[in-house]
């Protein structure tokens, strides 16, 4: 690994973080403390929806939040609908979370007394399949609310989990608490990307979702995005995101090299994709490599 001031520092000691606004703050601070130049460029804009006909948690046995954002926006809606600052959670309603980020958000928002069903912190992967493995160990709930983002009243996200629950006889209600839209990057950021490509500089990119990847491609274009990643590294939080990055690279005629976690070196003619767990400790270790 190079050090700041070395010839390669402009490439390996620069990172582009694309989580929604505010969600990379701690990661960015830790990278800067290590001497990295950080570009916190959210790829998605999240917007809460009006508190109209919000499903009440007491009508369900289990409420699943597909992300920390889903938990935050839903609880804000409940508080608005009830005219209170904080929401009291029914003692007999469990909460489901797919990973440590959403589980941590639940604990911060609802406290330690709520029954939380989530994959173990040391699980090899955090996704719908991991949460299903937890839920299927015991009696399944009768009524489940899945809170997510997206278009329409039901939104989108975690369709596999909703399908498995429904196939097992569970009544599933889908609810969108917020909207996701591609963020519009200002012109100076797009000029920065072109300048990096022209100079042969390749910051490490962190892409945290397939929706975020689609938003980046919508703004930059697949060919220019892949040109910027070729010779550099892209860090992702799940194999399905790695699959999506690889598909884009291959569609542009560029090879990929895939690795698990830190320890991968950039290759001049390929996009190096590193898959890691989505929490900050793992992402940090993989970015600094």
TrEMBL record:
Q: Which GO terms describe its molecular function?
A: uroporphyrinogen-III synthase activity
Instruction: List the InterPro entries hit by this protein, alphabetically.
Output: 4pyrrol_syn_uPrphyn_synt_sf (IPR036108), 4pyrrol_synth_uPrphyn_synth (IPR003754)
Cited Gene3D superfamilies: 3.40.50.10090
Enumerate the Gene Ontology biological process terms.
tetrapyrrole biosynthetic process
- Pfam families linked: HEM4
Tetrapyrrole biosynthesis uroporphyrinogen III synthase domain residues = 26-246
Protein origin, superkingdom: Bacteria
* Stated name of the protein: Uroporphyrinogen-III synthase
Q: Give the source species.
A: Verticiella sediminum
Identify the taxonomic lineage of the organism of origin: Bacteria, Pseudomonadati, Pseudomonadota, Betaproteobacteria, Burkholderiales
